[in-house]
Design a protein that fits this description.
EC 5.1.99.5 (chains A, B, C, D, E, F); 252 residues; alpha/beta; four-stranded parallel beta sheet; Rossmann fold; hydantoin racemase activity (chains A, B, C, D, E, F); Hydantoin_racemase-like (chains A, B, C, D, E, F); 15% strand; homohexamer; 2 domains; Iso_Racemase_Enz_sf (chains A, B, C, D, E, F); Asp/Glu/hydantoin_racemase (chains A, B, C, D, E, F)
Chain lengths: 252, 252, 252, 252, 252, 252
């Protein structure tokens, strides 16, 4: 089984961090290729960043043709995940979604800890959209930019520990999702410090991808996730034009 | 007051149709300029289309500098509206949101009628996200592609009338939002045929934009809609790089 | 266009304050007449006050015959708004509803600041009924009675600033609705002090009324807002008997 | 124990019907006095009717002084119930609320059957406000006016049976609330015909009132249901002025 | 009328305490028999305890044959209440449900105060399941085990007072449900100390049971609460085998 | 990795069917042992069945000591799953939960198809509890008892196909969860006939269990899922007494 993990941003050292988490999480027979979009922001910390990241993320899927059995979108917020499911039959898993499912399976009440304060609304809307507003009891932010999350590991870990303690003590969170792909790999240290399950969202998504592939499930083409109708899309290369990419829709 | 109405797709005859509705709806002192993105799909009928439309929509806002007092995103689903509010201080109104507010003000229970069957989920999620799942009692689709909505006016009107009648009779809808910018201008004919308020979403958004401008309100920069932090965004032109566009943030 | 703004209470100096806000908010071609019910409480601070205010508010609409194009009910909580939509074809806008729509258009998360502590439940239920429980993140009260809100402007402003700061700092509110018609006109001072959009709910409702009139939309008479059936209503004057007032239902 | 049952309208033969149901439902030691407001509509079939009914309902409570231990508001929709709880310490029970609690206790999924089609929204909002949108699976209306519900008993029963059968077969309702006080007394006949619990809402409310009185519970005066502050209320008699009626607030 | 009150646990002195509350709450003509399951935990403080308590609770109902007119399950969380409604026609009332209905009837916003911190999720889910997440504004726990709640009355009362004060001051709760059958009888003392309605959940359930019996309502056998189909259930005695117990289903 | 799959009922041929699905779904290195409780009903088709099944299910976990790395509860409705998470550190996955996560990952709108009509409420409540009421658009039942689901495979498959077609055509479901462990193995046939993803819930849960184990996550012992406090539980064997079973709580 081959899974392509797509970093949501174009920050290469984060791609490497994500790869480490993904490789560590995979089953032995799974092959993981971690990549990053050709186009898009260095980090996703705003809706603007998120929306400019999506075409590049989708391109990564289109370019893959049939080489992969599943895709992971490694950016909390799951940018473009519905579109991704339209353009391929292969399962596409968002790390936000995956981490919340895992949290649900090990804790009655959980929270999300993440980076910049301004992402509070993005996090909250992602949870609301998924339907877990009654399960998620805490969203807390360090205020540390995504890039520093990658480069200043110890400071980031300390800050996450601090808000994690508040999530446990004040909000009664019993597990925590790491709400940024850049935090991949910090789960073990934080779990040790905080004493509750801390979920590496990238790792969670790899496991979900393996699960869906192994179940031989593919994206439903019944209605919502049908292949986009052929039509000109200005300003995008030929390989991104609907009707031009195969969307492996004849495979099923 | 100058309002820029941005067609969500790159289909020029739809831009013209939107312009007609917008011009018809404006107050005398309002100047409307209707435009379409340089890049993006000919119609928005899938999540894929929607996400590839967003960068072009946002670019239209960035390129406007300080020339406009407000923006309307003329695509039901309000693609990119949160990001748009980050990159400008000027009000940005989505036509979905606007039409639902208008529906709420004239009817206790309302519905949305729109194009392709596959957009059902997109419509439903837009309503859920806004918080009106208990007010919207009907979503019905004609199955007619967006482009034909523009080019085959009579067939479209007939088909909308037909699903409109079902929405009234079976779902007890008391007003209907036209769930596609391409349906702009059909509200009067449908209102006459159906006997209930039918809301031209583009017109609704123009009025909302005029309202917010007249109230001297601008996008809150307190947290979520702060200007995106400067950072490189690969594959996008200089004028779309955060830190490069002014975001008229010094105006307030 | 002529809009009648109806103060929800019978406190004349508040009617004047509301009028100032409404006049300041109107477009040049709009004519505003602000009035107050002949009957009803001096201020609305309880459910009892609210329910006794409603017949007088409705009477103001009935007495207007066809002189006005729209009505604004200037009392946060929108007392009687559904009934008002039954007895006239002309749009009727509540200031609570209007202010929340405006808040949604400029902020991701917003709050309501208002008068007496006891109104907390009334405010909360109004928001829940509208569907915005997931958008409204803060409701805070000064404890100052409505009448003093009008008469002690500086103390009121200071108190609102104080709870506004808490709403921003603790609840992460990014815009604030002024939850009482008596606070009309304080938005500019508070906006300056707090640095986030503060919404004068009366002004917001005037703009919504202008919008709906301009869109030529009227109350749906399909089901819920049909004209009340003729029947005797004891204790109310002839002009308030269903069947006696025209409800301008023959206009459409 | 003395309970005052207040018909929501001023239709005397309905008051008698309500009284019969209430008397039949009371425990032997309970004394029931059924009454109707001096002012208000002959029937409640619209929001307009409902709001004009409320002052008269509240007056019935005020005039009762300390003669009663509890009040029942006999109109599905519970008009004015929050205000009623402000002006007295004595429990005030709405028949809508009461019937829904009873339905919850005997059925997993239940419905409401009622009169005019136009009341659909009023019924739905009452259920949503209470929090039972996930328990109520059916709302169906006969189209028969309230007054005929009282005067044409057999036709009403037949029509209720018919929509009741649809509620069971199509919506899988397992119990039905009679959504109008005028239907009091029809529960037994309908229960026999339909084979599921049919709840006489007046009877249900009498039992709830007896329960609360027997528990020695009174309306909380902590915040929301505090006695209204003294203030002039124009157009209402002296005995309805806050500060003039005792609200038996010194009793506790 | 004969009501069987079933303590959810097997702690005899708690059964006695429950009996005192139940006897104090009953109408003169009601006969109350309070009992405890033969099997089950000494106290219910975890999901494990709760699930092991349920078979014994159900057995108490089955063994009662036709001797009782209604049953009360005296454990906050209402363990097994849906199953109980399947195996008998007689009304079965849970004390959680009953106390919440009573709270709704006397207060706009209420809370639950209870025992061990770990039960927070159980309490919250019970409220969510019932549909009152928007009415319940506070859940607070003393940390005192259930057994001590019974044996250390003064310490328990002091601790409840303390969290009750926080519920009032910080969460604006206006009434409080005692979230454990072991707290039965403490309502009067707490009501005196806290000044708001405090609801003895056992007493509340007795009143609800009397109400339903008096209304001649029984569990709907239309769908969900049908008698369980005959089938072998290993490890349970003959009298608990479906098909063997009569479920008094022939009575209706 | 060793996973114990626990059939929720005591019907041996269903245990075998579950085992086949589980074995087919496991990764090569996973060892699956499928078992059934010593005590409990032959099938779970009512709340009564469900609650009597739970102690036996929990016993299977307790008896396993440290031999297994995870548990699957193979009964749609996930009976006892919260309690199971208290008594072991090892992940416990319910098949309902697992199948809904999988459905979410491959379809925008999905449904559940299952056995007896009476289980409608159980299914609906399970979905509501999880938070997916806005994702699940269809619940349909064949009316075929669980046991026949196992023994009459072809009739069951035909009946499921039939309701599946309705779910797709009328409710616009785009994937279907098989809502009964007895349907394990029918997913491929149904997928072929219906053309949309059909999810074998047992297989889904095996994959989720493998995922959580591989992520080294265990049940949070922070609050809700703490090991039950030692206390006597009458009528249950020594090995089921809290304090006697180790709950492998010292492993972490």
């Amino acid at each position: 089984m081959r899974i392509k993990v797509i970093n949501g941003n174009t920050f290469e050292s984060m791609t490497q961090g994500i790869d480490q988490s993904a490789q560590a999480a995979r089953f032995p027979d799974t092959e993981i290729v971690t990549t990053q979009p050709k186009a898009g922001p260095e980090s996703v910390e705003s809706y603007y960043d998120e929306y400019l990241a999506i075409p590049g993320i989708l391109e990564e899927i289109i370019l893959s043709g049939d080489e992969f059995d599943a895709f992971v979108i490694a950016c909390w917020g799951d940018p473009g995940v519905e579109a991704a499911r339209e353009i391929t039959l292969k399962p596409v898993i968002g790390i936000a979604e995956a981490s919340m499912y895992v949290a649900n399976m090990v804790a009655a009440r959980w929270g999300v800890i993440t980076t910049q304060h301004r992402t509070l609304d993005m996090i909250e809307k992602t949870i609301y959209k998924t339907g877990f507003s009654h399960r998620c009891v805490s969203i807390r932010t360090t205020g540390i930019p995504v890039v520093e999350t990658e480069t200043a590991r110890e400071a980031t870990t300390d800050a996450l520990e601090q808000i994690g303690r508040l999530a446990i003590a004040q909000d009664k969170a019993e597990a925590l999702c790491l709400g940024c792909a850049g935090m991949s790999g910090l789960d073990h240290a934080l779990e040790k410090r905080l004493g509750i399950p801390v979920i590496d969202s990238v790792a969670a998504a790899v496991k979900m991808a393996e699960a869906i592939v192994s179940l031989h499930k593919q994206n439903s083409k019944a209605l919502t996730y049908q292949v986009p109708s052929p039509k000109p899309i200005k300003g995008f290369p030929a390989h991104m034009q609907p009707g031009r990419f195969s969307a492996n829709s004849d495979k099923k």
